[in-house]
Known about the structure:
Elements: H1 8-21, E1 26-28, E2 34-36, H2 37-50, H3 56-62, H4 70-83, E3 96-98, E4 104-106, E5 113-119, E6 127-133, E7 136-137, E8 144-146, H5 149-152, E9 166-173, E10 182-190, E11 193-200, E12 208-211, H6 212-224, H7 231-242, H8 245-249, E13 253-260, E14 267-274, E15 285-292, H9 298-309, E16 319-322, E17 339-340
Parallel strand pairs: 16-17
Antiparallel strand pairs: 1-2, 3-4, 5-6, 6-7, 8-9, 9-10, 10-11, 11-12, 13-14, 14-15, 15-16
Amino acid sequence: MNSAPTFPEQRLYDVASRWISNSAAVLRVSDGTTVTATAELIEVATHCLVAGLDSPTLRVLAGLDPELRNDEIRPILDSALSELAIPTPNSIEPWRQLASGGQTYSRQPTDTIRFEIQPADGSVGGHEVLVHVNDTEMTSMGAGMGMDPFEILIPTNRLVAMAEPTRTPIARCDCGVYGCGSTDVTIVRVGDVVHWEWHIEVPMGHGVTFPADLYDAEVARIAADHSWERPEDTTARTILEAINHAALAEHGLKVSWAARHHENHDLFGIALWYGSGEYPNDVGYQIFLRVPWQNRSAQQVAEDVAGIFALPPEKWPVTFHSTKPGITTPPPMAGGRWKREVL
């Protein structure tokens, strides 16, 4: 891989930062095996000694038992970092690199990125967005499977780099559920470069940096590529792009999904969400709109949906379902056309 940290100080700083943030983490390494954050910390300390970085307490750190408690390890780690003039973990911007003596420099834009959309495993369905960094596929090395395009590209392209850092999910568990397994990236634009920093189940031990113009071009390319879409995907995308999401938000509503009806393929369904729905105390609602789909273009269906949601909510021909058992009353914006749906 390009841009691997040159100095052992950087590698020790990175692993120390990860360990302090989540010492209980189990990390997947390049050969597919896993290692605990504590074992990684001790292993990297050993590698630093081999690379020529040395101090009395670093030698102690390299010889620790991975089963030691965190409160026994932390003073030793702090002492080793202080002896080596390495800054406090998580105290410098993650795209800045350490050199000997605690000097820092900005990570250079030497990495490449390419996105690819392919069908997800048949047991999961849908599609996944693969991420190739320096021609190595990252999502399988992270949580296991790329995110569905409707999670990160549609209707908002969450891969776009801005001056304000944004955190975006980039991989999920092989079962298809984000949260069962997760890999996130923080994306930030700094001048003419774009930095990525990995979180949770990281596919590599350091962030990566791209030339901003090449990164922007690749993000725009994958967003404009609809060759992977099935007819139902095209319809869902067109609907999501046509809906006035800001107007829905004024009523506390957001779109959950848009998809072909699972039983009646003549219909297309759109689900909205209302409320926090934090079980068991708060009430949340699913709100369903179904419109004719067969023998209609994606644009026709999208115009139909957008036109309905442009009406006052009490006029919508929708059904609702409360996520809190026993609640049969509709949400506050409901009208006479709203019907309760029993799932």
